[in-house]
Specification:
Layout: H1 12-37, H2 39-43, H3 46-75, H4 87-118, E1 122-124, E2 128-130, H5 138-173, H6 177-182
Antiparallel strand pairs: 1-2
Helix pairs in contact: 1-3, 3-4, 4-5
Keywords: Cell membrane, Electron transport, Heme, Iron, Membrane, Metal-binding, Transmembrane, Transmembrane helix, Transport
Pfam families: Ni_hydr_CYTB (PF01292)
Protein name: Cytochrome b561 bacterial/Ni-hydrogenase domain-containing protein
Length: 191
């Protein structure tokens, strides 16, 4: 399988970045939901809570780096036409992808802003610390946190629509959109 995209096939790099982002978005979301469900326990163990928060922030910065890599890779490669789409589907697919990329950028950036406003850097997997991008500012903590929170839920909603659309293509349209991103095979399904 080629590393670069072709006019009819996603390359290995684009597919790897897609699935790494999917794993990060879904994994980080499940992680945060677990932490929120465990809040009473964490209140009795603040050191564990702080460790969890550092992991969350480190994965968020990793997601930001990966989405920037995805955008650079996408810009330097052809975007395959993996299935024939109606004009309506083309327009909405394009808009949905723009929204996905915007949210994949906005969620970690607002998280980084919230952390910075709180006055803390981000320890990245215990290897190094990334400083804040704005000075400590108590008045900005709540708005940046709530922006991060709301945008994260919007991203999860759009990711859900993206997953449903992929399975719709696979099950109803019987085209190769899902398998093209999963296995990288061009063409249409015959089964």
């Amino acid at each position: 399988m080629p590393l670069r995209n072709t006019p009819v096939q996603w390359g290995g790099v684009a597919r790897a970045l897609h699935w790494l982002m999917a794993l990060l978005i879904i994994g980080t979301s499940l992680f945060v939901l677990h932490v929120n469900d465990s809040m009473p326990w964490f209140k009795s163990s603040p050191l564990v809570f702080i460790t969890y928060i550092h992991w969350h922030k480190a994965f968020g910065l990793l997601a930001l780096v990966l989405v920037l890599a995805r955008l650079a890779w996408r810009r330097s490669n052809v975007v395959p036409q993996t299935a024939p789409l109606t004009m309506f589907e083309q327009i909405w697919s394009h808009r949905a992808h723009i929204a996905l990329y915007a949210l994949m950028l906005a969620v970690p950036i607002t998280g980084w802003l919230a952390s910075s406003a709180f006055g803390s850097g981000t320890k990245v997997f215990g290897l190094f610390t990334v400083p804040g991008i704005i000075p400590k500012s108590k008045p900005l903590v709540a708005p940046t946190y709530w922006a991060h929170f709301g945008l994260a839920w919007a991203l999860l909603a759009l990711v859900s629509v993206h997953i449903i659309a992929a399975f719709w293509h696979h099950d109803r349209r019987r085209d190769n959109v899902l398998m093209g991103m999963w296995k990288g095979r061009p063409g249409t399904r015959q089964d």
